[in-house]
Amino acid sequence: MSNEVTIKDDQLPDYLRNHTQKERLGNLDESDRIVPRLQLLQAISPEVTEYDNAKAGCFWHNLAAENLGDKVKAIPIIVRKSVILWAPRGDERGILARSMDCVHWDNPNMDFQVKLKGVAKPVLWSTGASVKDSGLLEFGSSVPGDSNSNPAASLTYNTMWYLVEFPEYSPVVVINTRSSLKPTQQLYNRIEMRPVSHYAQLWELGVSQEKGAEGPYFNYTYRASGYPTEEAMESAHRLYNRFKEMEWMANDETDKEANTATRGNGDKAYNEDMAKKF
């Protein structure tokens, strides 16, 4: 169990209050930034056993190691989509290939032999010259010859949020893939329908319990929650201007969430339609 203690700014000892203007740590710059994750914990998430304050079905800030509850109010800052080819569960290779533009792989023309649960022989995944050429985003690609098998690769949305109730923990990134694609796509359409820019909109991130091919799991819900205060909107707008042209990554390299609880079949017709768009 973790014994780490988090001290907030208003709890600082007197002798530290004159040192809150932080000095540069070294020659690091914004290109070295990895944005913290806001994770929806599942029963199998390692944090549930590692931390006393972690609970399945709650939002977890992975840098602060804080449980933020099952409802969080936030302002959307920016979204980036990608395609990720994860190694199967139990395979320690993690991410095999990634396409940040949903067109070109970072590991093109590579072959990966993987062992899938319930499949007798290893199968071969090939990235090919591009995402489209590989066919790895299409149904039937995880198990060649089985048209009902899931896509081998995952269309993924990384959405950066400003947490209005936890500004000190902002920004954070929520990663949506597999079964959480549909509510996230609906969110983006609804954002476009509202009369103001995205950074002037307030949303409530919530939790629903659903049943997948491998049992029950928690999924994301998004509900419009009016508009933020002027101060919160200005903070969100500053973050948007700061990050919109910047290269940044979410802290997902060691997180298997996208490859575990949310890897159910989901809505096949919807997923097939989504795959055709990229």
Tell me the domain tally.
2
Order of helices and strands: EEHEEEEEEHEEHEEHEH
- Indicate the structural class: alpha+beta
Overall pLDDT confidence: 85
Radius of gyration: 20 Å
Beta percentage is 25-35%
Explain what you see.
This protein is of the alpha+beta class. It folds into 2 domains: 35-80 and 158-178 and 193-269, no CATH class; 82-154, no CATH class. The protein is 16% helix and 27% strand. The protein has helices at residues 46-50, 131-134, 181-193, 230-243, 268-276, and strands spanning 34-35, 38-40, 59-61, 66-67, 72-86, 95-99, 111-114, 123-126, 154-163, 172-177, 203-212, 215-224, 249-250. Strands 5, 6, 9, 10, 11 and 12 form a 6-stranded antiparallel sheet that branches. The chain has a 3-stranded antiparallel sheet with strand order 2-3-4, with no helix packed on it. Strand 9 and strand 10 (172-177) form a beta hairpin. The termini are far apart. The relative contact order is 0.18. The model is unreliable at 1-7 and 253-278 (pLDDT under 50).
Concise overview:
The protein is of the alpha+beta class and 278 residues long. The chain has helices spanning 46-50, 131-134, 181-193, 230-243, 268-276, and strands spanning 34-35, 38-40, 59-61, 66-67, 72-86, 95-99, 111-114, 123-126, 154-163, 172-177, 203-212, 215-224, 249-250. Strands 5, 6, 9, 10, 11 and 12 form a 6-stranded antiparallel β-sheet that branches.
